[in-house]
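Re: the 1023-residue chain
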Amino acid sequence: MIAHVPPPVTLAQHYRQFLAALAAAGFEGEISQRHADRTVLATDNSIYQRLPQAVVFPKHADDVVRLATLMDRDEHRRVVLAPRGGGTGTNGQSLTDGIAVDLSRHLNGIVWIDPVRRVARVQAGVVKDQLNAALAPHGLFFAPELSTSNRATIGGMVSTDASGQGSCSYGKTRDHVLALEVVLPGGERFTSRPAGPDELQAHLARPGRVGDAWRCAHRIAERDAALIAQRFPKLNRCLTGYDLAHLRERDGRFNLNSVLCGAEGSLGFIVEAELNLLPIPRHTVLVNVRYASFMDALRDAQALMAHAPLSIETVDSRVLMLAMEDIVWQGVAEYFPSSEDSAPTRGINMVEFSGDSLEALETRVAAFVAHLARDAGAARLGHTIAAGHAAVTRVYAMRKRAVGLLGNVQGEARPQPFVEDTAVPPERLADYIAEFRALLDGHGLSYGMFGHVDAGVLHVRPALDLKDPAQAALIRPLSDAVARLTRKYGGLLWGEHGKGVRSEYAPAFFGPLYASLQELKAAFDPHNQLNPGKIATPAGVDAALLRIDEVPMRADADRRIDERVWQSYAGGLHCNGNGACYDFDPDEAMCPSWKATRERRHSPKGRASLLREWLRLQGEAGVDVLQAAARQPSFLAGLPARWRNGRRRAKAADDFSHEVYEAMAGCLACKSCAGQCPVKVNVPEFRARFLELYHARYLRPLKDYFIGSLEYSMPGLARMPALYNGLMALPAVRGLLARHAGMVDAPLLSRFDFAATLRRWNVRHATPSALARLSADERARSVVLVQDAFTRYFETPVLAAFIALAARLGCSVWLAPFRPNGKPLQVQGFLRAFDRAARRNADMLDALVQCGVPLVGLDPAMTLVYRQEYAKLPQMARLPSVLLPQEWLLDALPAEAPPRAAPGDFRLLAHCTEKTNAPAAAALWPRVFARAGLRLEAQASGCCGMSGTYGHEQRNLQTSQRIFSQSWAPLLEAEPAPAEFLATGYSCRSQVERLQARRLRHPVEVLAQLYGGGDEEDVAAAR
């Protein structure tokens, strides 16, 4: 009889069995094999892409223990895992083709802060800026600085031994780690902290894998002391990854943290960290020195360091020019003046001084400035001084965005991170960079540079189009050449951002010491299951270090997307993974859906990743998305097919489109990404295109038609507001809306007597012929009010307030005919209908513009559509110029304030779209109020959570309320109230009224009251 031999278990089956066992073991976090989650975590800020088999999100440290225990069993030895934090690595450190263990979603709590001892204990997923925000009231901060501080996690910082600006003064992450809570493969959990002689002996006698780790590290430190001293360079950036040189501290204690810091998750899971804190310097000054060449800036750095500044940061002209086109420039332009009479600035050194004594600090800065004046050793163009924490923070914000800004160049060749964090002795940096530049120039490559000249670290990113195989082939020769160059100058290929995929250079660098690294890896992770292929591989294990040109790159998948499709969707596909959209700060507008859900697919980076994958899969399935968009059948002709597809949807779970749709549907379309992303990834734009294609295949929900038709139905419904509002208030109607249209409620029509306002102020209807009859003087004293559906029909008193204000300023007010703007159609993906509406509206408005009378629109989200979405329509003849109210008011208000007491101070909660996409215009409001003799301060705030009709949709209700609770609610509930809050967005005011039964005024209502001398008849004092 022939025995039956079962087929071998595939790798995928191994992972499915592991995940099933994990769930059975009581794992309380999430386990996902969804293609969307795997795709989003397949990339970081590097050039690489590795699709994990699954993603797990531990809920607490016990879940991590369950993972570690299970992976060590014999039947799961083929399973590999990689811890992941913020995913901002530039070398693929956290990328894996096994299981990605995301420690950031749930393990993100600050355990405790001891301000007396200046110590904090935090979970691994806490973001660096999150920690510092909590420490600020105590006058403390966690010192290691890095450009990704608003999204980098403490666990990630520990795992890469992160450092950046100020490291010469403050050191690296390991210099501030007091203790680490670590879970090893096998499930042993222990606390690692520096050990004195007695403690060390206890650790060395400890059984199990923890004891093995202590014994191995101690044996290496004793046996290889001379070799370690010889091989490890004497640099500020000494080494990231298995730092054997600091196992022995100066006081004689033995510190296992020196190898855990920088281990990139290859030795154990870091679940908590105890951190040393420093007092925040009371005063700080940044001297920004400008040069005619970048090499002049580098060569001058040594002389500047003689004045012992806290740090010296440098950027080249490429970064500076990109910053000028970015939202960040609004706050820093004054510090980087340009003049036609002087040479252009091509290099900058930002030199920081800080201290607790203002007098002593001013003396140091004065001495430094005097040096700049008398020293002829460098050709400097001049300098500016930013004094105080607020000013210095604004300038550093520009420097921090350098990584992302370099991805915002034009064309397909983009600066790529693969040789971008080398470190050499600072005194040799200029000569080293001269050779580095010659190497890149020899290949005809452009590049951008920025970095920490005081530490000898410069970030250099050659521009390559990695979709081109010929250019992708340059990764190997350039990396090899730079590795040789760093050795020539006594430096490191990996000085700051970790080894990751570049670990293949470790054996050559460490030489005979590499075997000790292998011993260390084997002691902690004997079966090579934790982030294998990085830093070191245990001797005898059948696995090698990863190689830079054998790991899949993002470009490998990108080149499988049709070039026509790539160019058409380039705005979304050029996301470089810098992760600026993961900003933790609730008072920043960037991506409210990410902040509320903590799910990375609900972020601009996540949605851009899903779009790339979806376009690739569509092409490989033979679908030409461009043809599909151009040849969509009419509504009725395509209805049967959409109906059939909808009926089969439950059986079509393998259609990745559904996962992409879920992520796109969660977007608020607030456009903060389009303004704040350094690469200008515009999710609402490609989201609308995706929705159009998706709903050509699958039925739309009724709420899409309800929202899309809003601008068309409101004029008719507004004729009977009492009936409409009464119906909307009925429980039965609200139930029907929820069940069949997916709407929890709908805004109610205003019952304000708008006709009376028009009569009182003699408002006339604007037509080209009527405006053409005006004299030049009459045109100068006229304004055309452009109506939008929201303020016109739901918040009419605000429109009336603007009319009253303009009339009281001596202007004749004209009312443009109401035409659908088209924004609701665009947001829902009715792009052909939007095109038609936009062209009709643009033609009408442009005819009015040609008459020479300014046009003003009240709602920023609707008004900015004329500048943005209309501009992207093909063959749009002319864009209608429609001003925001503050842009018009700055010229319309009289030079003298009205002779009456100011009614108080005000805080402005600007609309997200306005402050991120038109920051210069948003910044005009304080100037407008100052002209009127009032004080208005722009309030830092996140999103209100409404964003048009998003908050009215049933599927978004909880997310909308959570977004509101993260930023707006704490600001509005602060006691005592700092001032009266004002809001420019209709949706924002609507959300506050819904969730707090409180009405915020629009700034024009305050001004109308002020210039009305107390007459509020036509001001929105009541509804």
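The chain has five domains: 11-102, 110-279, 295-408, 561-699, 754-1011.
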